Amino acid sequence: LELFTMFFNSVTNGGKTTLAEKLKNMLPNCDIISQDDFFKPESEVETDERGFKLYDVLDALYMDEMVTSIRNWMKSPASSGVVTEEPENICDNLKNVYILIVEGFLLYNYEPLNELWNRRYFLTLPYEECKRRRSTRVYQPADTPGYFDGHVWPMYLKYKNELEENASMQVDYLDGTKSQEELLSYVYSDIIQELNKLRE
């Protein structure tokens, strides 16, 4: 039984969830774990002096539970309810591999996750495009005025800088302004290549 885990990190609205879902349909025995499922309830999320709820920090998430979920999946991927229906025309050497996609926005700044991946991607967006996309989404709780500029974007820059300063971090940066088709085709062929390398 072979396992392959890939992590997708991105700025808010960077397109990671869409990409993950599309890849899941193209790859055999593929499952997704989403960091968004591990947010603490609103009452447990800290508020800063400006009244902003601090969602874009690791403390807003049950990260240890997330690591446990990933490890449990790795122990028995077949029992995770993953659909083992083969996608069309899948190449033979992928038949008995189980693939896990972990997607989130703070994956590479949490030490215990660092030993769990085969491949890491980071979708980036310029400020204007990110802000535009964010404004089209409805959040629970809703973004308060100034929240994006006051909390979301500064936190993204902080974590991205930490990542770039850490020389040992192997991350493939992707341009989130490219079309979904382009990104999908790049990541898919990259994964197939990686899996082939593992087989050699």
UniProtKB/TrEMBL annotation:
Catalytic activity: beta-nicotinamide D-riboside + ATP = beta-nicotinamide D-ribonucleotide + ADP + H(+); beta-D-ribosylnicotinate + ATP = nicotinate beta-D-ribonucleotide + ADP + H(+)
One Pfam short name: AAA_18
GO biological process, one term: pyridine nucleotide biosynthetic process
UniProt KW DNA damage keyword: no
Pathway: Cofactor biosynthesis; NAD(+) biosynthesis
Transmembrane segments: none
GO MF, one example: nicotinate riboside kinase activity
Keywords in alphabetical order: ATP-binding, Kinase, Magnesium, Metal-binding, Nucleotide-binding, Pyridine nucleotide biosynthesis, Transferase
GO cellular component terms given for this protein: cytosol
Family affiliation: Belongs to the uridine kinase family. NRK subfamily.
Stated name of the protein: NRK1 kinase
Species: Vidua chalybeata
